[in-house]
């Protein structure tokens, strides 16, 4: 695996490659990232991965400085798997040589709901860096995890509207044995919080079950889920039932007729904010 920190060298390495597969990450790799890479490798060749902790997508009170930077460990993990041909790990100066005044702003109906309500600049930061990374790597396919369900939808819409010649593939959420979705933020959990953390996924499963039973309406299910998590000591941002197609609320009729839904959750346990979702 070649580790490259500058854009020109990356382009030189990839010159003439027509089916580049790409997995963008912020590093601190775990099994879920490696599965994304495996999938990408099956859909393109060569595979490029990137590691870049993108300041633009962190709010002022978020954990940019605390975000784990573990480049040497990450390189060792990727070398062991042997899927990645080039790791692109640019410095901030390389990717943002001047203040990034051009930004990609997602539409409010997609970018200001759910995560966007609690992290107002998040999707603008994600889209801006993903567009820049796509411009550097010029992939034919790129793989994103369903764990960040809204991010996946936002990136897909951006690619569609800008007619970017890249296919976005979705990878299923990878979970620990007890159901907790794998995330770099799990490492911040204390032993006690780690033991409690699977409750988020269990509550999503309960929401899924309640939708299937159709005894309660969507709002009642959301309210019960919030109440349940709060009673367990979580600080809940949202527990929401939305349409898979556009993340908007289903009408009562759509709900009754079995519209494909997704239950999405964001909640804090102690100081750590976790997100998860489950398709229904
Ligand atoms: O999901 C992530 O790790 C990041 O949001 C991404 C897509 C690498 C952009 O910084």
Automatic annotation (TrEMBL):
It is an enzyme of class 6 (ligase). The active site is at residue 33. The reaction proceeds by a bi uni uni bi ping pong mechanism. Catalyzes the condensation of pantoate with beta-alanine in an ATP-dependent reaction via a pantoyl-adenylate intermediate. It holds the Pfam family Pantoate_ligase. This is Pantothenate synthetase. ATP binds at residues 26-33, 145-148, 174, 182-185. InterPro entries: Pantoate_ligase, Pantoate_ligase_C, Rossmann-like_a/b/a_fold. Belongs to the pantothenate synthetase family. (R)-pantoate binds at residues 57, 151. Its EC number is 6.3.2.1. It comes from Alcaligenes endophyticus. It catalyses: (R)-pantoate + beta-alanine + ATP = (R)-pantothenate + AMP + diphosphate + H(+). Pathway: Cofactor biosynthesis; (R)-pantothenate biosynthesis; (R)-pantothenate from (R)-pantoate and beta-alanine: step 1/1. Beta-alanine binds at residue 57. It is found in: Cytoplasm. Its main location: cytoplasm. Homodimer. Keywords: ATP-binding, Cytoplasm, Ligase, Nucleotide-binding, Pantothenate biosynthesis. GO terms for molecular function: ligase activity.
């Amino acid at each position: 695996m070649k580790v490259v920190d500058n854009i020109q060298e990356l382009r030189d390495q990839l010159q003439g490659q027509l089916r580049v597969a790409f997995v963008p990450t912020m590093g601190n790799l775990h099994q879920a990232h490696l599965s994304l890479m495996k999938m990408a490798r099956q859909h393109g060749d060569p595979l490029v991965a990137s590691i870049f902790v993108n300041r633009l997508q962190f709010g002022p009170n978020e954990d940019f400085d605390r975000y784990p930077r573990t480049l040497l460990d990450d390189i060792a993990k990727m070398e062991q798997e042997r899927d990645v041909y080039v790791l692109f790990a640019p410095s901030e100066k390389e990717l943002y040589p001047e203040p990034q005044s051009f930004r990609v702003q997602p539409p409010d109906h997609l970018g200001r709901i759910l995560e966007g309500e609690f992290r107002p600049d998040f999707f603008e930061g994600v889209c801006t860096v993903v567009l820049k990374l796509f411009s550097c790597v010029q992939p034919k396919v790129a793989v994103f995890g369903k764990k960040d369900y809204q991010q996946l939808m936002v990136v897909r819409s951006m690619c569609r509207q800008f007619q970017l010649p890249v296919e976005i593939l979705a990878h299923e959420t990878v979970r620990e044995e007890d159901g907790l979705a794998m995330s770099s933020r799990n490492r911040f959990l204390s032993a006690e919080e780690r033991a409690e953390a699977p409750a988020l996924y269990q509550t999503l499963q309960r929401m899924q079950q309640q939708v299937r039973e159709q005894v309660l309406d969507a709002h009642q299910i959301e309210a019960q889920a919030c109440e349940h998590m709060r009673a367990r000591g979580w600080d809940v941002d949202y527990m929401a039932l939305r349409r898979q197609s556009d993340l908007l609320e289903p009408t009562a009729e759509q709900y009754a007729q079995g519209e494909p839904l997704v239950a999405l959750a964001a909640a804090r346990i102690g100081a750590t904010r976790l997100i998860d979702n489950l398709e229904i």
